From TrEMBL:
Chief localisation class: membrane
Descriptive protein name: ComEC family protein
Record domain Metallo-beta-lactamase: where: 510-691
Record localization: Cell membrane
Membrane topology type: Multi-pass membrane protein
TM spans (from-to): 24-43, 223-244, 256-275, 304-321, 327-345, 357-382, 388-415, 424-442, 454-472
Keywords associated with the record: Cell membrane, Membrane, Transmembrane, Transmembrane helix
Length: 756
């Protein structure tokens, strides 16, 4: 079976480049690559065949990516008529659907869409089919360094489009069997305090999990236990295997065969995957269990690493876009860490030979230490932090969920319609969950955010295991000391030139947040928007500051509108001593009126507008600030409109010249008058805008107006985070989408410009 392992290596190396490609090649290039693959396959050498199979898998991955992007180009230009099947719904206005036909033509495989804010029916359930007239929009996410990559996530989950439903007619009212099952469990558990968590564990429906519960799981590092994933599918497979073995006790000896429990385990895993709605983590786990079954039936010994590699290859061949999934990468590394840990750091002899009940907690502690240390690099890369209480929390949560909650929950799923028995089983699950959450609540708040510069240091666990097992601390002590010093030095901040600084327009959607950075300190102009349950500071600004290990010192609030001050309270919670300037005359705010000057980190700040009297509010009361280092100048304008622009220009024409201007009012026609643009005489204009906003900003006329005046136009909707690197009289603008992290899944999908 050496050929199989070689082919699996080839498949993985062929598909993994999909993570880093800046763009998907055009069809002629893909055709040429496929022809080259066929030519290499004709070479009668084993390595040539491995290379050909790897290139074939690369072609397959590129084809999948191109087919995934096809709806963006063909379906989003106008309203279309589709037939769609309901996958999930909150019963109100938010739904997940699968398009099975479009304009009368079958769509295979079905394409996932989301619809927010559209009412369909009072008795809506999964499995019902609708004929709809919809306006489809491609996925689009805010892009910031250190932020959540929603575009990559959407592609990995195959949820590529959002839909605005213009008209809908139900053509089938039949609910799916899963929907009937879900309804039965909901009815039985409706009085239980932890019903939301039960439904998340049983069906993957996480809408009922409260924000408080989600935060507690995140803080304790146990969130992975509450989503149906590889561990839960494996437990279901184990239960299926055990049931089959118990049944075999009633068989005569000549009827007992090892294949029956193996097949039963895959069947049980498949049922649980179906109950979970076929969500990608559960489907990947089912594929892994199926591959494991196939290998077991080959009648030879397979090492753990061989099974691990075959499962990865099989999953990636089935769905190449899985390589973009963070949960898949975590699962892959978690299994690799377990294998590596037990091979290189087996149970100490005093634990392995211990007797009594203490052996099992110690063995679990040994396991949790290994997982925590070896998963640290990827955890910091994905979540930008770690839970300091995760070790203790998982020592309680893992055995409780694995050996009590999940088996009882599976029994409840089977027996839920049997009077009394089903109710008592679900009550038992609820009480076990209550015990778990009570225990987690006793633990201290353990979440610790980690800066980007500690990523290399997080590899210390892996390095320490190698050093210990290879006895390098004895044979090469000075080299090991040098290595550790190098890791420690890598965490220190890079020295910046005295005249170097940065201006970052963060991608906060509809709102404004500009971070001026120098020597590890930050001056923030506006704090983005706020909405029920969150704000731009909590979602974007604070994670960005933490990831770059930056200290926020001062904030300017340009005016009182929510999209400019929405994140202020969250910032004050993190930095209570924050110095705030604004024209609002609020308690604790320093003035920001025309004529005010101050210096920060060697930069000069001059307020150009508004005057102290008369009192001005709204957009025209925006605090307009010129920032300069003596060579480079940027004008920050808030939402100032034409009337105030003209008033600001009186007797101050020569004071407003700048290299770059922040476009006032997100590119609205009510701002950016010709006199202001001529007075600034800048080279570039930066606008903070969101795609699909209700006001259709920025105005195409405003963009053309700037370009006709010699400005290069940039906006966050098109470019994501915009970063200006300034070094004396030299400066450069880079956008996240095209320069900072160019990836094919970060592209602007759909029509060239769509802001409404």
């Amino acid at each position: 079976m050496g050929n199989l392992i070689g082919l699996c290596f080839s498949a993985v190396f062929g598909i993994v480049p999909l993570m880093w490609l800046p763009s998907i090649p055009r069809l002629p290039i893909m055709a040429a690559l496929f022809i080259a693959t066929l030519c290499i396959a004709l070479i009668r050498h084993q390595w040539a065949r491995y290379a050909a199979f790897g290139l074939l898998c690369l072609c397959w991955a590129l084809f999948n990516a191109r087919e995934t992007l096809m709806p963006f180009e063909q379906w989003t230009r106008k309203a279309v008529v589709v037939e769609a099947v309901v996958e999930r719904s909150d019963g109100k206005q938010n739904h997940e659907l699968k398009i099975v036909s479009l304009e009368g033509k079958r769509v295979f495989p079905p394409v996932g869409i989301r619809s927010l804010g559209s009412y369909l029916s009072d008795d809506l359930c999964a499995g019902q089919r609708f004929r709809m007239k919809v306006h489809l929009r491609p996925v689009h996410g805010q892009l910031n360094e250190g932020g959540f990559d929603s575009q990559r996530y959407a592609l990995a989950q195959h949820q590529l489009l959002s839909a605005r439903i213009l008209d809908a007619k139900r053509i089938s009212s039949v609910c799916s069997l899963r929907s009937y099952w879900l309804t039965a469990v909901e009815k039985t558990t409706q009085q239980l305090p932890y019903q939301g968590v039960i439904l998340a564990l049983a069906f993957g429906e996480r809408a009922g999990v409260s924000d408080e519960q989600k935060n507690l799981l995140r803080q304790s590092g146990t969130a992975h236990l509450m989503a149906i994933s590889g561990m839960h599918i494996s437990l279901a497979a184990m239960v299926g295997w055990l049931i089959a073995r118990l049944v075999q006790f009633a068989f005569p000896a000549h009827r007992i065969h090892f294949r029956m429990p193996l097949l039963a385990s895959v069947f049980a895993a498949a049922i649980y995957t179906w109950l979970a709605g076929g969500n990608p983590p559960a489907a990947r786990a089912l594929i892994g269990v199926t591959i494991w079954l196939f290998l077991r039936l080959q009648g030879r010994y397979w090492s753990s690493w061989e099974v691990w590699l075959c499962c990865i290859a099989g999953i990636l061949i089935y769905d190449p876009l899985t390589v973009l999934s963070d949960s898949f990468l975590l699962s892959v590394l978690a299994v690799a860490s377990l294998i590596f840990w037990y091979q290189w750091m087996p149970l100490p002899r005093f634990i392995a030979t211990a007797k009594g009940i203490f052996r099992y907690p110690l063995a679990l502690l040994h396991l949790q230490i290994g997982i925590m240390v070896l998963l640290l690099p990827l955890q910091i890369f994905i979540f930008h932090g770690l839970s300091l209480s995760a070790l203790l929390a998982n020592l309680v949560a893992v055995p409780l969920i694995s050996f009590a909650v999940v088996p009882l929950l599976l029994a409840g799923l089977v027996l839920t319609n049997i009077p009394w028995i089903g109710e008592y089983l679900w009550w038992g699950v609820d009480r076990l969950l209550a015990l778990l959450f009570t225990t987690l609540a006793w633990l201290p708040d353990g979440w610790f955010e980690v800066a980007k510069r500690f990523q290399i240091l997080s590899l210390s666990g892996w390095i320490a295991v190698f050093i210990y097992r290879l006895s390098l601390w004895r044979s090469a002590p000075f080299s090991m000391i040098a290595l550790m010093l190098t890791l420690a030095v890598s965490t220190s901040r890079e020295e910046e030139k005295d005249d170097a600084w940065q201006v970052n327009m963060l991608d906060v959607g509809h709102g404004l947040a500009i971070a001026i950075v120098r020597q590890g300190k930050v001056f923030l102009y506006d704090t983005g928007n706020a909405w029920p349950g969150g704000d731009a500071a909590r979602q974007v600004i604070i994670p960005w500051l933490r990831w770059h290990n930056l200290s926020l010192e001062q904030v300017v609030i340009s005016h009182e509108h929510l999209d400019h001050r929405g994140g202020l309270n969250s910032l004050l919670y993190e930095w209570p001593a924050l110095k705030i300037r604004s024209p609002l005359r609020w308690a604790g705010h320093h003035p920001c009126f025309q004529g005010e000057r101050w210096e920060w980190q060697g930069l000069q700040f001059t307020v150009q507008w508004p005057p102290p009297q008369p009192v001005m509010t709204g957009n025209n009361g925006s605090c307009v600030v010129m920032v300069s280092d003596g060579h480079f100048r940027i004008l920050l304008t808030g939402d100032v409109e034409v009337e105030a622009e003209l008033a600001m220009l009186k007797r101050r024409w020569g004071l407003l010249h700048a290299d770059i201007v922040q476009v006032p009012h997100h590119g609205s026609r009510t701002s950016s008058g010709a006199p202001l643009l001529r007075a600034v005489k800048g080279s570039a204009a930066l606008a903070s805008t969101s795609r699909y906003n209700a006001w259709h900003l920025p105005s195409s006329k405003v963009i053309k107006h700037y370009q006709s005046q010699g400005y290069v136009w940039y906006d966050t909707a098109q470019s994501g985070q915009l970063t200006i690197d300034i070094n004396s009289d030299k400066w450069q603008i880079n956008g996240f989408r095209a320069q900072i992290l160019p990836r094919w899944y970060h592209q602007w999908f759909g029509v060239s410009r769509d802001n409404g």
